[in-house]
Backbone:
C-alpha cells in the first residue's frame, strides 16, 4: 500500500461481537486498499473478533479506559493521536464521542462521528444529560454519519446538527457469504433439530437487555399453544451470548419446551446457521440499522421484527416480513403463526427479502458512501 495514503483512526468502545463492530470490520475489509490506511483504537480492549479483519496492515490499540471519566485514558488517547497523526478520526456512538474533543486538541482536522443506535438506558435519544453532552461536543464534529433515516432525523431535530453535516448511509451486507443455499447442517446441532420437516425460527445477536430475547421465548411458547399440531416441527434457535441467555433457557425449560430449542451461545458460523433457518426474528427494544436483519434477508429469510428504530426502513410488512410492537409476545406469536402455517408465504417473502438486498444494500454501496464522506472531510 502507498504509505502516503491518508490515515483514518477509528475509535470505538470495544472491538468484540456486535453489529457496530461487524460494520466496521466489513467497511475496512471492502475499502480499496490504496485509498486510505486504517487503525482501530479501542477504549476498552478487543477480542478474537479482530481476526475477522482481512487486511494485515490494520493496527489495533487498546487505551484500557476505566468506566466513567478516566482522565489518564484521555491523556493516553491524546498521545496516541499525536503519535499516529491521523488525517481523520472516526468515532462511533456515545461511548466514543468525547474522543472528538481530544482529536481536535491533538490537531486532527478531519473529524467524523457515526451514530449506529442507542442503548437500553436511552432507547429514544431523550436523555437530557446525554443530549447536552452531544450538543456541547457538536461543534467539534465535522461530519455525522447515521445508519438510518430515523437516526439522521434525530441528529438534526434533537441534537441540532446542521442537515448538510449529516450523511445517512445504510449498512451493507455480504450477499456472497449470506445466501439462501442451505448447504450442510450446522455443527454440534441437537439430534433431529434440523429435520426435513422442521420449521426453524431463529435469531442472532447479543443476548443483552436491549435485544429483549425473553419476549421471543415467550412468543415461541405462545406459538406452541396456538398451533399444537405443529409442536413436533417447531424449533427455536438463538445464537448469541449475554445476560438474558440463562433466563431464556430457564423460561423455556419451565414450560416443557427445552427439547425444541437450541441456544448454543456465541458462534462463528452465523451464515451457515441463517441458511438453516426458515424464519428470522428480531425482538429488540431499540435498533439503529440491524446487520442481522440484513444478513437474514440476504439469506432469503422472511423477517419478523419489532417496529423500532430503523427496522421499519428494512422490513416491508406483507412483502418481506412483519413488524410487531416491542415487548408484545402475543403480537409476535401471531406473526410467527402466520409464517409457521404457510410454507409458501415463507418462501415468497424470503425471495422478496433477498431481492431487496440485491437492489439496495450492497457492500459496495456502503463503501462508496463512506468514501464520499471521507473524501469530502479531507477537502
Residues:
Amino acid at each position: 500500500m502507498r504509505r502516503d495514503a491518508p490515515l483514518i483512526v477509528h475509535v470505538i468502545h470495544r472491538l468484540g461481537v456486535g453489529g457496530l463492530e461487524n460494520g466496521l470490520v466489513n467497511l475496512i475489509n471492502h475499502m480499496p486498499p490504496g485509498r486510505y490506511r486504517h487503525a482501530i483504537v479501542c477504549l476498552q480492549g478487543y477480542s478474537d473478533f479482530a481476526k475477522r479483519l482481512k487486511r494485515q496492515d490494520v493496527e489495533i490499540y487498546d487505551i484500557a479506559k476505566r468506566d466513567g471519566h478516566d482522565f489518564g485514558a484521555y491523556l493516553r488517547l491524546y498521545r496516541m493521536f499525536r503519535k499516529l497523526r491521523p488525517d481523520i478520526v472516526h468515532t462511533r456512538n456515545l461511548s466514543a464521542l468525547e474522543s472528538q474533543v481530544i482529536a481536535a486538541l491533538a490537531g486532527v482536522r478531519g473529524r467524523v462521528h457515526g451514530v449506529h443506535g442507542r442503548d437500553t438506558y436511552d432507547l429514544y435519544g431523550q436523555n437530557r444529560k446525554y443530549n447536552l453532552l452531544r450538543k456541547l461536543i457538536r461543534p467539534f464534529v465535522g461530519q455525522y454519519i447515521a445508519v438510518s433515516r430515523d437516526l439522521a432525523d434525530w441528529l438534526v431535530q434533537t441534537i441540532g446538527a446542521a442537515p448538510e453535516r449529516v450523511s445517512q448511509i445504510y449498512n451493507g451486507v455480504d450477499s456472497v457469504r449470506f445466501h439462501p443455499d442451505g448447504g450442510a447442517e450446522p455443527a454440534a446441532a441437537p439430534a433431529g433439530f434440523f429435520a426435513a420437516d422442521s420449521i426453524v425460527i431463529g435469531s442472532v445477536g447479543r443476548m443483552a437487555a436491549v435485544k429483549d430475547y425473553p419476549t421471543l421465548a415467550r412468543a415461541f411458547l405462545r406459538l406452541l399453544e396456538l398451533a399444537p399440531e405443529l409442536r413436533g416441527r417447531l424449533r427455536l434457535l438463538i445464537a448469541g451470548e449475554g445476560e438474558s441467555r440463562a433466563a431464556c433457557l430457564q423460561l423455556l425449560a419451565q414450560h416443557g419446551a427445552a427439547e425444541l430449542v437450541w441456544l448454543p451461545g456465541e458462534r462463528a458460523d452465523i451464515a451457515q446457521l441463517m441458511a438453516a433457518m426458515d424464519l428470522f426474528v428480531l425482538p429488540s427494544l431499540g435498533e439503529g440499522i440491524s446487520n442481522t436483519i440484513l444478513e437474514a434477508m440476504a439469506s432469503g429469510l422472511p423477517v419478523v421484527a419489532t417496529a423500532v428504530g430503523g427496522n421499519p426502513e428494512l422490513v416491508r410488512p406483507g412483502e418481506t416480513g412483519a413488524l410487531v410492537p416491542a415487548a408484545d409476545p402475543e403480537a409476535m406469536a401471531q406473526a410467527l403463526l402466520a409464517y409457521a402455517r404457510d410454507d409458501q408465504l415463507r418462501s415468497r417473502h424470503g425471495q422478496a427479502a433477498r431481492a431487496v438486498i440485491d437492489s439496495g444494500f450492497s457492500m459496495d454501496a456502503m463503501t462508496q458512501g463512506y468514501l464520499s464522506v471521507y473524501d469530502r472531510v479531507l477537502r
